[in-house]
Structure formats: C-alpha cells, structure tokens
C-alpha cells in the first residue's frame, strides 16, 4: 500500500494519550536544584543594588547569583545574520547596571526545592532608579534618556525597479496606515530546561526543546568555553513551540552554567506569569503603504515603510522578522517597482522574536489591507483587483530581484487564480457571499473578507538523516529536525515506508537527535517536511538499493525481479510466497560480514540535502464575520482556507496544521494582545487576562489543499505547511469586518476593539436619528 | 516555611500516603509525591485545564485544589485510562480523529471529557463542545476533539450494551 498522500493517523500518539510522554517538567534528577529567576518589576531603570541577604534565611537556599557572578558569560548572540552593529542590542544573561523591560532577569536563586527557590527569590530586594520608558513605536523616535545605543537597531531595505517612474505613471496612488498589536505564541506548556554536568565524561547534558539543538549546542559551547562535544542537548516532548520556544534564552545559559559550576543538576520551569512577560513576543508593527495603480486597475508598484517594535533586546533571530516582512510584501502580485524600508525599533518591552508565520503575517496584513483599499478606491470587487495583478503560471519561476535571509528570492511555482477558483467552487463561496448580502439587507452586520498570501519555507542550508534496519527488521530514521506536535515523525515515516517497502509502524523516527548526528539544522520556517523529508527520501532510496543488492546476492535472483512490500522481499512475478524477510536480510548483512554491502556498513544509509532555495507555497483565506450591534463584538463563525502544499504527504496533518493555525491567527485578530500599562507593566500576566479562544470561539475551518504547483526545489515537490493557517486570517477578518460595517478601510489595526465598532455604530445611529 | 502533613488518598485505585505542605496543590502532590507526571500544569490559575483529574468522579482543576483537600478521596488521573496494552475508547478516538497536537493538554482533555461522559453518557454535540471549551489548547483542532469525544461516546455505549 502506498502511504504518501494518505491521512495516516499520527504515529507515536500513545505516550501523549497515556501520560507517559516526557516533557521537561517531568524530569526529576537525583540531588537536583531548582532555579528561580528574580525579574525586573520596572520597565526602564538604573540598577543601583541587589540585596539578597534576607533570601539566605530560607532553608534549602544554595546560591544567589547576580551579573557579577556570571561576568564570565557573554551576552546571548545571534543564530542568524550576526553583525557588529547589532552587538550592543544583545541581552546579557543577567541585567548589568540597567534594566530594560519588566521581566528581565536580574538575579537567579538556586534551592533544593522549587518552593524554597520561589520563597527566596521573593526576598531578593532590588534598588532601581526609574527612567522614562519608551513603550510605543511612535514614541521611540525621540530616543531613550540614558541609553548610548541608537533606538533604531537596524534598517532593512529592499527594492527593485524604477519606483519614482512607476509612481509618476500611476493613474492613482492609494495609501493605508495599518498596524498590529503585540501578541505571542503562548503555548500550553511554559518554557523549561534541565541540565546536569556529567563529570565522568565532562559533558553538560541538557534536556529541553531541541528544535535548534545544533545551533544552540554550538552557541552554548562557545559561551561556556567548552568543546562542542562537551555540550549535549537532548530532545524532550514539547508542549507547543510556534517559533517562540527553542531559541537560546538567558535562562538556558544560566541553567547550563549553574549545572557545571554548582556540580548539581539544575532545573528551571517557568511559571505562566513569567512566560507572559519574559518569553519572546511578536507581531507589533506599524506600516504606511502606498500602491501605484495603473488606469486599467493593475498594480504598478508598492512603497512601504514599516517599523517593528523589537522590545528591549535583539534575540538570536536578529532582524529576521523585519527582513521577511519586507521580502514578503509583494506577495503574489506582479510589480514593476517595489521599495520597502523596515525599521527595527527598540522599546522597553519584552524582546520580540519569531512567532508562527513570522514576517508573513505582518506583510500579508499590510499588503492585503492595501489591496482592499485599492478595490474601494477604484470601485472594483476585491477579488477582481487581485486577479488583475497576480503573477501567472507562465511567469513562473518568478525572480523577485531581491534576497531574503541571504537567499535570492525566486518564486518557484504558483497558480494563484486557479486556487481562488477552486476554493470558490469547492465551498460554494458565491453562496456565502450572497448570504452575507442578504443578511445585510435584513439589517444584520455580516460580511465576508478575502486575503491572498504567499508563504515561504525551507530555508537553512542543509539537513542530514541516517536510516538503518536492525536485525529484527525495524527501521530507525534519525534526524535533527523536531517533532513539535506537527506530526513530522509520521510524515517522514510515510516517505520512507513507500520507498523502502516497509510499514510505517515499523519505522521509528528519532527526532531532535543532535547527540546522534553531529550536523543538521533543525526546525523553523516550516522547513522540516521539505528538508528532512528530502533527506529521508534520499536515505530511503539508498536503503532500497542496498536491500535489493543484498537480496540479489543471497537469492541469486536479479534485482529487477524483486519487490519489497511490508518488509518482505518477494519475486515480482510470483503471487505467493515471501522470498526473504527484511529481518533475515538485515542479520545477513551485518557490518563486517561478506554481505555488508559495498561500503561494508550493512543496512545503514545516510541522506544529505543541501538548500536549493526556498519554496513559496501560497494560499487564500476567506473569513465570515458577524457583528453584534449592541456590544460591537465580532464573531467569526466560518473560515475557508485554500492552500497549495505542492505535495501533501499526509493531508489530515496539513489540514490540522491549517485549522489550528487559523485559530491562532483569529486569536490575534479578535481576542489576544500583550499590552502594557503606561508605566510598561504587562497587563496580561495569566490566562485569566490572556484569553485563548476555546472550542466555542473556534470557527469551523474548511480547508482545501491543492497540489497544483509542486516545488521545483525538491524531488517530492513538497512545500511547508506549518504556518499556512495563521498567515491570511488577520487580513481576511479585517476585510470581513469592513464589509459587515459597510465602511471600507475601517479596520486598520488588530486586534479589533469592540469599543471602536460600538462608537462607529453609535455615531451612525445618532446621525440617522437626527436625519 | 510550611507545616508538613501526612495525607492518604486513593489514586487510580491504590491507597497512597504522602507527606505534603499545607500549600501543596493536588497537581504537585500527584506529579511529585506520587510520581504521576501525566497530569500537567499550564497556568496554575485554574483556566487552562491541563491539570484536570477526576476526584470522586468529578473533573476538577488539580492546580486549584490543595492536596490536603483530597485526603480520603478517590483521585483518577490519565495514567488510569489504559493498562499499557489496551487503550480506553477515548484514547483510541483522540488518536483516530487527529485530536492530539503537541499533547500537553491531552491528559486534561481526556479526564475532563471522561468525567462528562461518565456523568452524562448521552450529552449531545453542543454540550460536548461546551465541555471541551472549558479547557484551552493552542495546537489541537477543537472540532477534532469534539468529533473524537462523539466517537468515544458511541464506542463506550456499545461497550456497555
């Protein structure tokens, strides 16, 4: 049976269903210490002194560290695009002289129990002189009193074509000013890390998110002055990552350093308040975007200036979000000229990092709001405005004349209009539109909005896997890419199963295995199915060759006449009888033996893939919004998403990624933001303040997956899907709200505030009363 | 800091006697005192429901209950659902309906919906959705969870007949 393309239930669910899966908080090591972080309660101030004397009265307290005690540790550096000008923006592992956001680690306490560590941390007194915090993008231009580093850490510029000429030739120029609030991944499990120094081997063993284990291992080894072999990062089960987790944080460095220095295992598990003030946040941005439109309604050029609220420090992702935002602004449209200027602005807010759909969510919101404004300005239907300017399949691959993340940007494939047409037909969207019109005619506030988006995936230079067959006929695929609940293990097993001729259930995928493989990159930018999937394909093809060569020698039957099914090698022209079990062959092909294969290694193969450019999957998001006139509350009962994934290895997993991504996107559009008081104190410090949409608020998400535009960058034609659901929702919901209210351009900012809608409706009814 | 207290509770059918502080939550007592780490904590505010267990058959947030309050009562955790060989119909249904994401909230969702189905075996889809909405989850499709619970309801009904 063929496995690729089937909605195979996920492999490896059982530990999660039975409570056996080992998350980091489930690890308890003998003699372990608990670390608790003392965090700044002040958004911006001069750190005058730290008095820990009272903490030492707590039974079980072992140590209290401040910046002086960790002076040997450099600040946390960059994983991507390091540059000397960015170094002043790196975060020290503990604050030195200045605190720059509420939640910044100032001291750490180590004790024999978690409660003792918490009790002691509360007794550490901080003496901080207040400075005036900068909390918004508009305020930061005046700079910070008492900071030597400029408020704008970096400026990203991308451009092509003759912008001035296109603007001059334009029939009209349409402009919008739009923005997004801060939000965050806020996964079910908070962050955590456990480390132990194995003195016998002189290795610091770390347990935690291993999404970026190779890079983090290298960074930690450098920071701690150890050989790479002196640091091991072991994968654990992870309760939601979404790009927030897995990057190196100050706490990770502190735990690793403490395990070595104190010579006892050290455990740090974040509480929810800490998570909401100290884990990476994202999305906050403001943009002014102009479109030059020709007389026939086609787009000529885009000119966008945007600023990103980076918070107090740059994170290991550096300026990635600004870079991707700029690069993804053109989306699916043909442009003669383009210019983007992205400003990375520092504020006294929690540092911002990557969050699912990083850069694409921001770019899509700006561009699609602008396209709706063009539609309103030209009096054309929104979908018609888009259709006129789509790049056509004949124009693919389309060179975007710029780079992103250092890679030349060429859109590999895409059939944008076809996807819209298919989605419209598949879910009878004409009826959905007509129903909204009908409801409005009856006085209801209902509308439908559409956003078209281009995604990107598969950056990162290479990926490496090994594949082996053990003497019992079980296969193991080892990868540094991570299973984060997205079903990667299942996808990889399906790919290997088809090629080798084995059952997926007999294939164990060992993920996050940087301790087994020296190299590999990890999981980000929806790259794993593409990169690790292609490496797995190569390893599986080599394995099939080896198996057939071994069987040929053993059976004295030419390999052309042999097939492999469910781990049994048969003669293709015989209907009955198994010539050889894979297990028997594996035993005969053990390394060193006469049948060990040309390389003498037996049934072991490797798959190595080098980055052959990025893939650019694309999609359409359609949202239905209905507004309660009394309260101004917006409800989104239905969402439709069409997405071209190139090759859906497991359609159910893709659909699940899209459906859940859509709910996360809806969350940022309607419900959640991480706002602060005028003094910079976070207002969302628990899940009572930060309201995650539940089953009741979750819309029904209808997904259409197409495979019309396979990627040219990998032989299976795969494109990533991890961020597809989240990217277009904000823009689609904004358009739906505008239509429901019959006020084009009303929604300029997400999340939408019911009070703004209420004010509009009140003003409107006031007018009608007077009229 | 805090007085130690000896409590005895029935956990998954077995009497367990452990020593806790007065302030120790039932969630911590199960995880650390009984080494049953299947019960998760996500917010410790009683909102997310990852820590949901059954106490005398009722779903409760174990982060909001002190361990001493469970003295003399019967607690069931996710570890009670399967004997290690056969999965409970709810577990099977969650697997088959792609109702497991990262898996962190799964134990809480299983115990919450088990409690609901044991109390009201015939609840309808709307009610199931309201029950599921009591817990929060960031990466599982809530509608898949509702479908799974519906399927489990049918399987459990067949099991009773």
UniProtKB/TrEMBL annotation, chain A:
Gene3D superfamilies in alphabetical order: Aldehyde oxidase/xanthine dehydrogenase, a/b hammerhead, Aldehyde oxidase/xanthine dehydrogenase, molybdopterin binding domain
Gene Ontology molecular function: any one: oxidoreductase activity
A Pfam match: MoCoBD_2
Domain called Aldehyde oxidase/xanthine dehydrogenase a/b hammerhead: residue spans: 18-132
Matching SUPFAM superfamilies: CO dehydrogenase molybdoprotein N-domain-like (SSF54665), Molybdenum cofactor-binding domain (SSF56003)
Keyword terms, alphabetized: Molybdenum, Oxidoreductase
Protein name as annotated: Xanthine dehydrogenase family protein
Originating organism: Acuticoccus mangrovi
Automatic annotation (TrEMBL), chain B:
Keyword set includes Repressor: no
TM stretches of this protein: none
Record keywords, A-Z: 2Fe-2S, Iron, Iron-sulfur, Metal-binding, Oxidoreductase
MF terms (GO), sorted A to Z: 2 iron, 2 sulfur cluster binding; metal ion binding; oxidoreductase activity
Keyword Iron: yes
Superkingdom field: Bacteria
Family matches, as InterPro entries: 2Fe-2S-bd, 2Fe-2S-bd_dom_sf, 2Fe-2S_ferredoxin-like_sf, 2Fe-2S_ferredoxin-type, 2Fe2S_fd_BS, Beta-grasp_dom_sf, Diverse_Oxidoreductases
Residue span, 2Fe-2S ferredoxin-type domain: 5-81
Name the UniProt record assigns to this protein: (2Fe-2S)-binding protein
């Amino acid at each position: 049976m063929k496995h690729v393309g089937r909605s195979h239930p996920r492999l490896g669910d059982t530990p999660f269903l039975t409570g056996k899966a080992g998350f980091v908080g489930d690890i308890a090591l003998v003699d372990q210490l608990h670390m608790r972080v003392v965090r700044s309660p002040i958004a911006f101030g001069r750190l005058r002194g730290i008095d820990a004397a009272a903490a030492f009265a707590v039974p079980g307290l072992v140590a209290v560290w401040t910046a002086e005690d960790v002076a040997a540790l450099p600040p946390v550096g960059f994983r991507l695009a390091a540059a000397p000008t960015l170094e002043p923006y790196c975060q020290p592992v503990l604050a030195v002289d200045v605190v720059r956001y509420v939640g910044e680690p100032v001291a750490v306490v180590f004790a024999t129990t978690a409660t003792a560590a918490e009790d002691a941390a509360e007794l550490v007194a901080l003496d901080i002189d207040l400075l005036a915090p900068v909390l918004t993008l508009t305020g930061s231009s005046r700079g910070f009193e008492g900071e030597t580093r400029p408020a704008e850490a970096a400026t990203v510029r991308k451009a092509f074509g003759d912008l001035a000429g296109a603007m001059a030739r334009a029939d009209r120029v349409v402009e919008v000013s739009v923005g997004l609030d801060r939000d965050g991944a806020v996964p079910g499990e908070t962050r955590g890390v456990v480390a132990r120094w194995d003195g016998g081997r002189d290795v610091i063993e770390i347990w935690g998110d291993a999404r970026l284990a190779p890079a983090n291992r290298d960074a930690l080894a450098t920071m701690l002055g150890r050989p790479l072999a002196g640091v091991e990062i072991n994968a654990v089960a992870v309760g939601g990552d979404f790009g927030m987790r897995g990057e190196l944080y100050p706490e990770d460095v502190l735990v690793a350093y403490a395990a070595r220095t104190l010579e006892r295992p050290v455990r740090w598990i974040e509480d929810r308040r800490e998570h909401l003030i100290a884990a990476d946040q994202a999305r906050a941005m403001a943009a002014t975007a102009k479109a030059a439109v020709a007389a026939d309604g086609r787009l000529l050029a885009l000119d966008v200036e945007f600023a990103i609220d980076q918070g107090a420090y740059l994170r290991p992702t550096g300026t990635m979000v600004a870079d991707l935002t700029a690069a993804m602004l053109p989306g699916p449209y043909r442009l003669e000229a383009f210019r983007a200027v992205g400003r990375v602005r520092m504020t006294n807010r929690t540092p911002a990092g990557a969050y699912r759909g990083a850069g694409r969510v921001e770019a899509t919101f700006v561009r699609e709001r602008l396209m709706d404004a063009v539609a309103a300005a030209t009096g054309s239907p929104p979908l018609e405005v888009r259709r006129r300017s789509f790049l056509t399949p004949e124009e693919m691959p389309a060179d975007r004349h710029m780079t992103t993340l250092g890679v030349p940007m060429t859109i590999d494939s895409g059939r944008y209009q076809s996807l819209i047409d298919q989605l419209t037909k598949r879910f009878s969207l004409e009826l959905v539109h007509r129903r909204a019109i009908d409801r409005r005619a009856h006085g209801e506030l209902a509308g439908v909005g559409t956003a078209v988006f281009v995604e990107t995936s598969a950056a990162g230079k290479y990926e490496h896997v090994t594949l082996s067959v053990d003497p019992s006929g079980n296969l193991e695929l080892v990868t540094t890419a991570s299973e984060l609940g997205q079903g990667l293990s299942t996808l990889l097993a399906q790919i290997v199963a088809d090629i080798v001729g084995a059952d997926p259930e007999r294939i164990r995928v060992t993920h996050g295995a940087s301790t087994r493989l020296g190299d590999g990159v990890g999981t980000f930018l929806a790259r794993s199915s593409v990169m690790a999937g292609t490496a797995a394909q190569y390893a599986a093809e080599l394995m099939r060759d080896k198996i057939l060569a071994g069987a040929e020698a053993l059976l004295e039957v030419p390999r052309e006449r042999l097939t492999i099914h469910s781990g049994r090698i048969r003669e293709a022209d015989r209907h009955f009888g198994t010539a050889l079990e894979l297990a028997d062959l594996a035993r005969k092909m053990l390394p060193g033996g006469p049948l060990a294969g040309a390389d003498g290694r037996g049934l072991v193969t490797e798959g190595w893939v080098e980055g052959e450019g990025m893939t650019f999957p694309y999609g359409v998001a359609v949202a239905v919004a209905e507004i309660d006139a009394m309260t101004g509350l917006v409800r989104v009962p239905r969402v439709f998403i069409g997405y071209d994934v190139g090759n859906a290895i497991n359609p159910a997993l893709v659909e699940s990624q899209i459906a859940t991504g859509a709910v996360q996107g809806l969350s940022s559009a309607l419900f959640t933001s991480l706002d602060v008081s005028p003094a910079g104190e976070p207002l969302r410090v628990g899940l009572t303040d930060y309201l995650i949409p539940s089953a009741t608020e979750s819309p029904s998400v209808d997904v259409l997956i197409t495979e019309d535009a396979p990627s040219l960058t990998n032989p299976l034609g795969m494109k990533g899907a991890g961020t597809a659901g989240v990217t277009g929702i904000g823009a689609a919901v904004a358009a739906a709200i505008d239509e429901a209210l019959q006020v084009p351009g009303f929604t300029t900012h997400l999340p939408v505030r019911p009070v703004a809608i209420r004010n509009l409706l009140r003003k409107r009814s006031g007018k009608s009363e007077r009229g | 800091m805090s007085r130690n207290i000896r409590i005895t509770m029935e956990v998954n059918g077995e009497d367990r006697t452990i020593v806790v502080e007065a302030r120790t939550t039932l969630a911590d007592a199960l995880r650390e005192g009984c080494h049953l780490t299947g019960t998760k904590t996500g917010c410790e505010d009683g909102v997310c429901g990852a820590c949901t267990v059954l106490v005398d058959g009722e779903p409760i947030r174990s982060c909001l209950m002190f361990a001493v309050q469970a003295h003399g009562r019967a607690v069931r955790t996710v570890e009670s659902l399967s004997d290690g060989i056969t999965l409970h119909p709810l577990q099977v249904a969650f697997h088959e309906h792609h109702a497991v994401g990262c898996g962190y909230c799964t134990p809480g969702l299983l115990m919450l919906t088990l409690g609901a189905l044991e109390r009201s075996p015939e609840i309808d889809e709307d009610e199931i959705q309201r029950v599921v909405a009591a817990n929060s989850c960031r990466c599982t499709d809530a509608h898949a969870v509702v479908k799974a619970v519906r399927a489990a309801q049918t399987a459990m009904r067949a099991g009773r007949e």
